[in-house]
Specification:
By secondary structure, the protein is mainly alpha-helical. The chain has one domain. Helices cover 71% and strands 2% of the residues. Strands 1-2 form a two-stranded antiparallel ribbon. Helix 7 packs antiparallel against helix 8. The chain is globular and about 60 Å long.
Length: 207
């Protein structure tokens, strides 16, 4: 049995090398889109590993068997479709799209990491209290919203429909289920009913 974080951190940690290998394999050394993607996704993977060491998420500390590990690795590998398409098809995204995806990615990392840090600190020093302020004031799952922006930036940069479909499968097949399960767990707090009225499930001010 191994902790889920070992599989997740390992996969995210080697993403930089995997994308660099794709650039080398297809000889896309002059492709700005490929290098932009490497900078965004590769850096995100490294930051995730650092985050996991500095302010880890308890949900990834649960022990799982090898079968589940393969499921995790297979699912995360689906996110490598974007860089594969970029390097294989020699995608050259327009300047405006590169700029848009970079901005989207930065905002995504901000929402994702700052909310995880807030949750880590509050659970460490104020355990047993519902988190309703700060990053979680307008969205009960602002960390997932951050991840949406991050992975949407990766998908858009490929200029292909397939990464968007893969992201949609994760959002509707897994993420929303996790969010509703979290809501059910948080409903044990007396103040959750009022908090639910003032916040959104996923996307701030919208949904």
């Amino acid at each position: 049995m191994f902790k889920q974080k070992y599989f997740i951190d390992s996969h995210k940690g080697i993403t930089f090398l995997a994308i660099l290998a794709m650039i080398a394999w297809f000889g896309r050394w002059e492709n700005i889109t490929a290098w932009t993607y490497l900078a965004l996704h590769g850096t995100y993977g490294i930051l995730w590993v650092l985050k996991s060491r500095i302010f880890p998420d308890k949900q990834w500390e649960i022990d799982k068997g090898p079968a589940y590990a393969l499921l995790i690795l297979g699912g995360l590998s689906a996110y490598w479709v974007s860089p594969f398409l970029i390097t294989w098809q020699n995608v050259n995204a327009p300047a405006w799209l590169i700029g848009l995806t970079i901005s989207m990615n930065i905002f995504g990392v901000f929402f994702h990491f700052t909310s995880d840090m807030q949750k880590y600190i509050q659970l460490k020093y104020h355990a047993g209290h519902l988190i309703t302020d700060g990053m979680f004031a307008h969205s009960r799952n602002i960390n997932y919203f951050g991840e949406l922006l991050i992975y949407l930036s990766f998908a858009l940069l490929s200029m292909h429909w397939l990464p968007l479909v893969i992201l949609a499968v994760f959002v509707f097949g897994f993420w929303l289920g996790f969010m509703r399960k979290k809501d059910k767990s948080l409903s044990r707090y007396p103040e959750f009913s009022e908090y639910k009225k003032k916040s959104k499930l996923f996307i701030p001010f919208l949904f």
